[in-house]
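User: Continuing from earlier, I have the next pair ready.

Assistant: Great, send them over.

User: Here they are, in order.

Assistant: Folding the first of the pair now:
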Amino acid sequence: TSKPMVLFLGPWSVGKSSMINYLLGLDDTPYQLYTGAEPTTSEFTVIMHGPKLKTIEGIVMAADSARSFSPLEKFGQNFLEKLIGIEVPHKLLERVTFVDTPGIIENRKQQERGYPFNDVCQWFIDRADLIFVVFDPTKLDVGLELEMLFRQLKGRESQIRIILNKADSLATQELMRVYGALFWSLAPLINVTEPPRVYVSSFWPHEYHPDTHKDLFLKEEISLLEDLNQVIENRMENKIAFIRQHAIRVRIHALLVDRYLQTYKDKMTFFSDGELVFRDIVEDPDKFFIFKSILAKTNVSKFDLPNREAYKDFFGINPITSFKLLSQQCSYMGGCFLEKIEKAIARELPDLLGSIGLGKKP
């Protein structure tokens, strides 16, 4: 039931806050987001709809379960002091919520922020319907913080839009070079066949600089607003599709853990050292055909299989003895977990999508 969330990420001082001010017409109002050449946004700012202009403290937002930000309490009081909400009576915000984030500063360590910055970013990334990663022509270098950010965006490529902001500060030839350099910098970080959509414009209320491609910038701006509108319109379909995608991941994970457990049980004898047996399986799952058997016996795609290394960490935290085989988790009345999730993936969620496509109320 929550509104679509649009997340703004990127290096410091690339124009994230200016872009939000511009889209919502907040310039020269008491509630415009503070902007400047130095790193200015140190808070996570949530801009949402309200009957009148109003600022809400992070502690109040987290305490109000109706706002769906209460899970943020787990990041501690230091973070809640860096969370702020702004209510604005704006038409667009009746249909969408914007989130402005602190700019990435490459030479700053997470500890200096006083809260787990990457974990907080991940929380917002997991809930965002659209993610604007904003750059400007002077900040195209990719450091460790930005690399980490793109690692967190893995699997959300369809929601990413790259913004090359302040484009009217360059002559045409320079702009083309910068556009190429941006793709060159980002190519190793976005490992998908189809590159994300890049919008090139200057998102602020000032007139475009003379002798630049004003028509192009205006068309790009209109395209971005159409894109935003499309995401709002397709909110329900996107949500169901994402639930189905998540269900497929859960199913594969369940099958893999089951296979690890079955292999462990098969290899254990009365005299075996359980820890050594399982370490052998985790270190070299291919020797025991763990992943290959999943592909052979189910309709799982090899491209959907997770990283083998991840399971070393997973079983380091969750001992294999704490799991039950999937076949033991079936009951006469309740059925089997795996059958239920298979039914949801194959029939129930596609039917739900179909009913929306036909204009029915799901």
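And the other member of the pair:
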Amino acid sequence: LLFPVSNLCGKCKPRDTDLLQPSLNFLYCSLHQTTPCSQQRAVAVLLSNVSLLELLQKVLECTWLRSPPSEPACLSSEDALLCSGWLLVASLLLYQHRYNTEVHQTLCLDLTKVLNAVIFRKKQPILLLVSILQFLRAVLRQNFSSLLVIVGQNAAQGATQPQPSSLQDAALHPLAMQQVFSLVVSLQNLLVHKDLLLSQAVVACLETLVEYLYVKNQDVALHVASQPWHRFLLFTLLSEGQKSFLQPEVLRLMTLFLRYQSSNIISQKEIRQILQEAAEANLAELPEATSRALHLFLCQV
């Protein structure tokens, strides 16, 4: 089925939402709900379809052209298609790297526009933000080096790359320091919404961002991880009362701050509180996400 569905997608235009949205969802599910052997074949099939990849390029670019809905929570058919497009490309990016699959068509995206879609949200639905964050995390994990997707400043084909304005910008290229801080502040603000799906995506993106920064410039990574605003963010997330320390996103943030030795953010008092709550909890009844986050936290301690 991958052959006819991917070929059908390649013949569509981005405005054909009624046909494209379920088709892209089928391709996405086919990648994730199959055996590793079949997954490798599925990736090869999709990445060999030039028309499909050209369509995905056009779909993603529609993100910059979308009109904000009257209600932020409203997910229009166009926004749903954008979600499917970003999630599918993020998955293809991940699996292309894993299997070193041959690529027949490269996608080019402007990094500034991708970041601005998160930083200046313009009433974007939560699911669209989550989808873009998934993509951003995928390119960060690959250090912006991929055969499938070129993401850079003014990354349109034929455009010249601007020169970094400082030594720090040069070390973080293609990111700039100002973009890093704007993105971190935006991710912090998104966490305050306390939406479970969004929180999971935001914390995962923040983890990957700091890992990327640490490889590029350790001083910058430690500076970002020790920003005082993180402390206020934790107080906000912990305002829900009893057992609030055992929220998965709180545990993962605490683990992140421990990993990068941000003693001004997380103190011995918070560590003792988490250990106390974990000791009193019925571990068998904890949700899987909480158990996994608690395991990582304890290993880090």
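Worth noting for the second one:
The radius of gyration is 20 Å. Strands lie at 107-110, 149-152.
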